[in-house]
Amino acid sequence: MRYDFDKVINRRHTDSTKWSVPDTELPMWVADMDFATAPQIIDALRSRTDHGIFGYTEVTDEWYEAYDKWWRERHGMGMEKESLLFCTGVVAAISSTVRKLTKPGDRVVVQTPVYNIFFNSIVNNGCAVFENRLIYDGEHYSVDFDDLEKKLSEPDVRLMILCNPHNPVGKIWDCETLDKIGELCQSHGVTVLSDEIHCDVASPGHAYVPFASVSDVCRNNSITCVSPTKAFNLAGIQTAAIYIPNKDLYAKINRAINTDEVAEPNVFATVGAVSAFTKGGEWLDQMNEYVSNNKETVCSFLHERLPGVRAVRGDATYLVWLDVSSYGNSRDVAGFLREKTGLYVTAGSVYGKNGDGFLRMNVACPSSTLFDGLDRLERGLNAFVR
């Protein structure tokens, strides 16, 4: 069946974090979609609601089976039950892991520009952010391996947080890159924590590579965080998984998330995940096609109307990374856009110092909403120049 992604759903005054803005503003910042999730998921949640009792809930066998089957069929890597842990969210898993595998004063390597909440998980646990800045050549991003090795060799570095695919630049890391990261981390005794929450949001024909699938080295020295929440717009349900083939690491992280009380599902958490992975495939494929078309619309619009702005080509996530460096400081640009046009996008500087000069725009929305946002972007940047 064909799904309707053009339908505009009013999310204002629904306690939505994204849409808790004045009525004149258009939020295109935080990473959740303006599409209703797959109807099969809605039906499963409704059925669970109709039961009428919402007591303590266990992780079911169906949950383990759904993850294993989905990753095996979609990404070429199974996830055996004995290596999977339930967690209430990827960020919760990351924070618990940082707490468990580091001590205050340690430095944690991240590759900036990167998801800014990584910084919170690091700093809030008494550690320091250690930036391995990605190389930007004006069109694409790549890893500075010389700098990465220097940082991994420091004695107070025990953990690296990898973003795969990479948020905000939309990069799908290839096998060779991931293999080299894995080898370097192994040789310096650094564990890799791979955030792969955006893995299922990819342009047609572009599949991501699970870090743990690359080699035995990567598999045995990694902790992988995954979830259906980005791909199926389920963030509010708070459901995620941690995949850890290494038994020693598994035991440590199992203890960590239970100590932090983030290892038990709410009544909808397993139902939402199981229905997504067992019944949502066709919906997801169409959603990815729609978002890919939205990205092409952005590129065409910029080429025709705003030649001073470049969209960095990314094959993953529903986020567009806009190079507005010709206009100046990204905080100033983002602030001006919001004040003058109501367009709410994220200043790239929040993702690290080398994110300045960029804006992050969420294009997981109906095309009419996208065109509204692009019109505001054009009006705002033209006024900013003057």
Would you mind describing this structure in some detail?
With 386 residues, the chain is α/β, with parallel strands linked by helices. The protein has two domains: 26-39 and 281-385, Aspartate Aminotransferase, domain 1; 54-279, Type I PLP-dependent aspartate aminotransferase-like (Major domain) (Aspartate Aminotransferase, domain 2). Helices cover 41% and strands 15% of the residues. It has 13 helices and 15 strands. Strands 2-10-9-8-7-3-4 form a seven-stranded mixed sheet, with helices on both faces. Helix 4 (117-123) links the parallel strand 3 and strand 4 (128-131). Helix 2 (61-75) runs parallel beside helix 10 (269-279), helix 3 crosses helix 9 and helix 12 (330-341) packs across helix 13 (367-385). The chain is globular and about 60 Å long. 50% of the residues are buried. The model has no long low-confidence stretch (mean pLDDT 97).
Record field, number of beta strands: 15
Q: Can you give the helix content as a percent range? A: 40-55%
The fraction of residues assigned to DSSP E strands is 5-15%
Return the CATH topology of the largest domain.
Aspartate Aminotransferase, domain 2
Query: Helix/strand/pairing class, anyone?
Result: alpha/beta
Question: Major sheet: size, sense and barrel closure?
Answer: 7 strands, mixed
Based on Cα principal axes, name the global outline. Answer: globular
List the helices and strands in order. Answer: EHHEHEHEEEHEHEHEHEHHHEEHEEEH
- Total domain count: 2
